[in-house]
Amino acid sequence: MVFHATLQGERYRFDDLRTLLARASPLRSGDELIGVAAADPVERVAAREALANLPLRAFLSESVIPFEQCDVTRLVVERHDAAAFAPIAHMTVGQWRDWLLGHEADAGALAAIARGLTPEMVSAVSKLMRNQDLIAVARKVRVVTAFRNTQGLKGRLGSRLQPNHPTDDARGIAAALLDGLLLGAGDAVLGINPATDSIETGMVLVRMLDEVRQRYDIPTQSCVLTHITNTLAMIARGAPVDLVFQSIAGTQRANESFGVSLALLDEAHQAARSLRRGSVGENVMYFETGQGAAISADAHFGVDQQTLEVRAYAVAREYAPLLVNTVVGFIGPEYLYDGKQIIRAGLEDHFCGKLMGLPMGCDVCYTNHAEADQDDSDDLMMLLAAAGVNFLIAVPGGDDVMLNYQSLSYHDILTLRSVYDAAPAPEFEHWLERMALLDGRRRVNANAPLSLPGFMDPRD
């Protein structure tokens, strides 16, 4: 299909859906890098005008990546729920935007249509929204998941405790782990990014995390964020694996560059569920995404990076994950140049993931060569908390010494919980109360212990 819009007497032409979506996207360096961005702000407005008038049904007849060339496209087409789509099938993208912002689109209505949405529909409507619109709609959506505690409940803000170490030293990791637990972090997951791909090291780390969890009876889940094939190998060797992690992208070719396929995800999902380690739920997968991943793998097919990101959510949705987070500024300024682009992308990702029924979190982060600073991270974390984000990632001091990027700190999580009167997962909150670590206002208890009994015992 060819799309047109006329502004001030000038007629703009967009040759296909892929081009229309790219030209309508807010300015970002990744789209400029691959030459799909609008030439100027006027063309961007024209594209949004044409997009607003496009019937939602059009997304069911044209794919941005051909069906024959991409298993993600095939997954989207084959899993589309026509009955769930029916309530909005008569709308244009612009009409759907207005409906989403209205009172009729409450939590129940949004949950009911989630399986009827394709990623391209969701990407399209996000391009017509201001930041406040993204927040207003996303905060209406609750996606609740569970493993050893319950994530995504209203009035709750989860956190991933990320105790990375540049040499995978177990005692260094334990020190960062203790620091986070004492400050009330870690209900979403105790998650380590290992510095190497060694399966032996992964076995040591996953066993250490499980020992700590069991010793202190912590109602949370752990994860060593190694490649999915390593996790399968660890499961085969009897490792106490709670969650299976994998970075995913929005095209088959990009996922292949990560060494992953839908068949491999199927295998890992079944293997993790067979362990039956959850106590309150069976959501066993943890996915990370990020705008720019498919571009960096030269697997973008000329599609704008935000639409590609939302296609990754279609992959994640297939496996009913416990957690999904976008690492919004991690890939670098080549894809999100500055704080403004990072903030916009974080709000888009959260909005789009929630609309598609995912338990969205975010790593509010940036690399040191980006035009961003901690004030930008503060702004984004506050906006995401207002939008009802399921969880955020936190590292000691906000500085990850292994991955060499800036994220949030454990103290930032305390600030957000205090400002928004938000609590951690209920099971984890009860544990914090039992251990006298937080007071009733989600602040550090002035009389809290400086350690946990036996933690980092020299004999260990």
Overview of the structural elements:
By secondary structure, this protein is an alpha/beta fold. The protein has a domain at 145-434: Alpha-Beta Barrel (TIM Barrel), CATH 3.20.20. It is 43% helix and 12% strand. The chain is built from 20 helices and 15 strands. The strands form four sheets. Strands 5, 6, 7, 8, 9, 10, 11, 12 and 15 form a nine-stranded parallel β-sheet that branches. A two-stranded antiparallel sheet has the order 1-2. The longest helix has 17 residues, at 199-215. It is globular. It starts with a strand and ends in a 26-residue tail after the last helix. The basic unit is a heterodimer which dimerizes to form tetramers. The heterotetramers trimerize; 6 large subunits form a core ring with 6 small subunits projecting outwards. It catalyses: ethanolamine = acetaldehyde + NH4(+). Pathway: Amine and polyamine degradation; ethanolamine degradation. Its main location: other.
Q: Could you give a short description of this structure?
A:
The chain is an alpha/beta fold and 460 residues long.
Topology:
Elements: E1 3-7, E2 10-14, H1 17-24, H2 29-33, H3 41-52, H4 71-79, H5 82-85, H6 93-101, H7 107-113, H8 119-127, H9 131-138, E3 145-146, E4 150-151, E5 158-161, H10 170-182, E6 189-192, H11 199-215, E7 222-224, H12 228-236, E8 244-247, H13 252-257, H14 262-275, E9 285-289, H15 293-296, H16 305-317, E10 323-327, H17 339-355, E11 360-363, H18 374-386, E12 391-395, E13 399-400, E14 405-406, E15 408-409, H19 410-419, H20 426-434
Parallel strand pairs: 5-6, 5-12, 6-7, 8-9, 9-10, 10-11, 11-12, 12-15
Antiparallel strand pairs: 1-2, 3-4, 13-14
Helix pairs in contact: 1-3, 4-16, 6-8, 8-16, 8-17, 9-17, 12-14, 16-17, 17-18
